[in-house]
Amino acid sequence: MMTSFKIFLIVHIAGGSIGLLTGLLNIIQNKGGKKHKLIGRVFYFSMLVAGLSSLVLSYLTPNYFLFMVGIFTLYMVVSGQRFLMHKEIETKGTNVVDWAISLIMLLSGLLFIGLGTWSIVKSNLFGLVFLTFGSLGLLFVWQDFLYFNKISSLKNYWLVGHLQRMTGAFIASLTAFLVVNAQYFPDFIPGFFYWLLPTFVLTPLIINWSRKYQVI
């Protein structure tokens, strides 16, 4: 068991580290060029590795937080890639895979909100982390519903959705990095702060890009 855990931990760290680096590079550079696409592919596969390995780790050593980050990361990066593949949903449409991805996030988001509420009732402020990730997940699921049913007002929602989801996956990667290295930061900073900081810092960036690239 310990040998398997160490192997998947190494795989997880490698995938997360590559994802963190490539994600940062794509955030700061111009979008749409060959370099952006190449780095984006590396980011996509590295985050798949990080997300899947985190689920395995959460099973080998039961950990709700690893499970939450794994589910959120996989949903964001997979749905983001599928939006890029579809581009114009009016002509290509959705299939059972798209709906299944959203359904998994819907159920997971409800679970996270339930766990968060229960934690707060038990006076554990870490429940705010579950509430935040759960609420964000449900928000993106609602956007999926609008888009899949062709009732979204955005003509190029595939591009906006892609940018939102990939940035969300990067947020998950950065969050994991901060949490793992929290021991090296000042002790007076509460643990849940590191779980929420990337979300609150980078969410305005997602909003800005959404406004920049959407066509109403």
Residues in β-strands, percent: under 5%
The proportion of residues forming helix, as a percent range, comes to over 70%
Give the terminus-to-terminus CA distance.
53 Å
What is the number of helical segments per DSSP (H or I, 4+ residues)? 8
Spatial extent as radius of gyration: 17 Å
Q: What average pLDDT do the residues reach?
A: 82
User: Would you identify the regions where 5 or more consecutive residues have pLDDT less than 50?
Assistant: none
Derived structural class: mainly alpha
Order of helices and strands: HHHHHHHH
Principal-axis shape: globular
Counting DSSP E segments of at least 2 residues, the number of strands comes to 0
Largest sheet: none
The number of domains: 1
Characterise the protein shown here.
With 216 residues, the protein is an all-alpha fold. The chain has one domain. 81% of the residues lie in helices and 0% in strands. It contains 8 helices and no strands. The longest helix is centred in the first third of the chain and has 27 residues. The radius of gyration is 17 Å and the shape is globular. The model has no long low-confidence stretch (mean pLDDT 82).
